[in-house]
Amino acid sequence: MAFRSNQREEGYGGADQREYNAGREGYRNGHVSGNIYGSNGHGSGGGENRRPRYEGTNGNDNFGGSKGPAQRPDPRKEGGQSQAVNKSFYKPSPAVLSRTEAEVAEFLNTNQVVLSGRDAPKAIENFCEVGFSPSIMSCIAKLGFDKPTCIQSVVWPIALSGRDMVGIAQTGSGKTLAYMLPALVHIGHQPPIQRGDGPIALILAPTRELAQQIQQVAKDFEHATSTRNSCIFGGAPKGPQAQELQSGVELVIATPGRLIDFLESGRTNLSRCSYLVLDEADRMLDMGFEPQIRKIIKQVRPDRQTVMLSATWPTEVRSLAEDFFTDYVQINVGSMSLSANRNILQIVDVCEEREKETKLLMLLDEIAQEDENKTIIFAETKRKVDHLTREMRKIGWAAMCIHGDKTQGERDWVLKEFRGNRAPILVATDVAARGLDVEDVKFVINFDYPHSSEDYIHRIGRTGRSKKLGTAYSFFTPDNSKQVHDLIDVLKEANQTVNPKLYDLKNHWKARAPTSGRGNFRSAGRRPDTADGKGYGCAY
C-alpha cells in the first residue's frame, strides 16, 4: 500500500486536501443517509424497502422449528398479559453427547477457558454440532469461516439454551458472532412484531463505530434469517433512525444515550425485548454510561435473557451482573487478571516528552519498509491528533485522523479510506477509536501513553486480531511513572521483554531519567525471527 502520499503538501492543502474535502462533503450531503439508514437498500432497511418477515423456521435445524412457513401466535394474551418467552432452542448433537468429561476438560484447558455456573452445556467444536439452519450454515460458509473460535464454541450452547451469561475475553476473539447468531435464532422463535412494537433483541455498545460494526455482522445474516435491524447512535440525525424504529425492526443495536432519547420520547419501547446484550460492558461503564444502562435494563421485560461481554472484570461490571443477571454462567477465556493479547509484540521506549515526535517519524520510516504497515497512532488530545496528522502529511505520510470534533460523515469517510488502504496511517484519540474494528491493523503506536492499563490493553488490541500477529510500540516518559507498575505486570503476564528502564522508573518513579538517541525500536523486545524473516513474531 502507499504509506506515503504521492506529493508533499502544506498541512491539508493541495490535491489530497481537495479530495479529502470532496469525500467529506459527499458523506455530509447524502452518502450517510444512503448507507447508514438504508433508504437506497444498502442500510438496515426502512419503510417500503423492508422484506416481508418469514414466519416459522424451515424445520432443518435443531431448534424446534416447524417445517415450512407457519403462523406464530399473537404475542399478547387476553387481559394484556405478555406471553411467556421461548428461550431454549439447543439440542446437543450426538457428537457432543458422546464427548466425555475428560475430553471436554481437555478442550477447555487447551483454550484457557474457565466456566463457572450451574450445569453449563458442553462446548461444541465444529459448526455442524450447533444445529444452525441450512441457510445460516450456508452464510457461514460464504463468509469463509472454517471453525468456531474458542468463545463461540463455548457461548453458543449456553446462549441457545436460554441461559444468562457473562463472557470475559479479549477483543478480536469472535465475540460479536458468538452472541449475534443466538440473537437471530431467538428472534426467529418469537411471535412476529407489529408496527409500533419495540425490538425483540437489543444490543448495547459504547460507541457508534462499534455499533455500526455490530450491525454489519447482523447484515451478513439478514437474508439467511429474514431479520430486520436498525442501528441508532448519537451524532447522526434522529429522524431516519426514529422512522426505522417505528416501522418495526426485530433487532436494534444502540448506544445508551441515543436509545434513552428514543425511549423517553416514546419513539420505541422495550416491552417486547427478550434478548439483551451488553457488549464491551467495561468500556460503557468507563465512559459513564452506568446510569443509562441501569435505566434501560429496568425497561426490558424481566423474563429476558441477558448476555454480557467484557474484556475485563472490574468491580463495577461484577456489580452489574449481580444486580441484573439470573443464574448466569461465567466464561473466562484467557487469564482472569488484566491481560493483553499474546499475539501482540509489545515494545516500550522510555524517553523524554521532547523526543517523542522525532522518534515517531523515525519509527514510521521503519514501519514503511514492511509489506503490511497499516498503523493506528494514539494521542491524548484532539489538538495533538490534528498536529501530528498535519506534520506527517507535510513530509508526505498518507495520514488521516479522527477525534470527537469530527462529524459523523467525516469519521465515516476517514475510516473508509483507512480500511481501503488509501490512508494506511490513522491518528486518533481514545474516545474516537473505541470499538474500532479493522482486521488488518499491523501496528499500534501509543504516542501518548494512556492513563490506565485497561486503556492500554484496549488500544493495543486494535492489532493482533483473529489470531494474526501485531506489534505495539509505546513511548513512555517519566510523567507516566504512575502507570509503570501496572505496565510491567501486563508485559510480564504476556511473556514480553521488559525494558530495564521501566524497572528504574518503578524504583524511582519521581526521578526523571533522560534518554538520548534514536531509541530501541529495532532491538528492544524483539523476538526471534519468524519464518518470513521480519522478526515480528508472536510473543511466546
TrEMBL record:
Residues 1-28 have a biased composition (Basic and acidic residues). Residues 359-506 form the Helicase C-terminal domain. This is RNA helicase. Keywords: ATP-binding, Helicase, Hydrolase, Nucleotide-binding. It comes from Allacma fusca. It comes from the Eukaryota. It catalyses: ATP + H2O = ADP + phosphate + H(+). Residues 125-153 form the DEAD-box RNA helicase Q domain. GO terms for molecular function: ATP binding; hydrolase activity; nucleic acid binding; RNA helicase activity. Its EC number is 3.6.4.13. One of its GO terms (biological process) is regulatory ncRNA-mediated gene silencing. Belongs to the DEAD box helicase family. A motif (Q motif) lies at residues 125-153. CDD domains: DEADc_DDX5_DDX17, SF2_C_DEAD. The keyword Acyltransferase does not apply. Residues 156-331 form the Helicase ATP-binding domain. Residues 1-92, 514-536 are annotated as: Disordered.
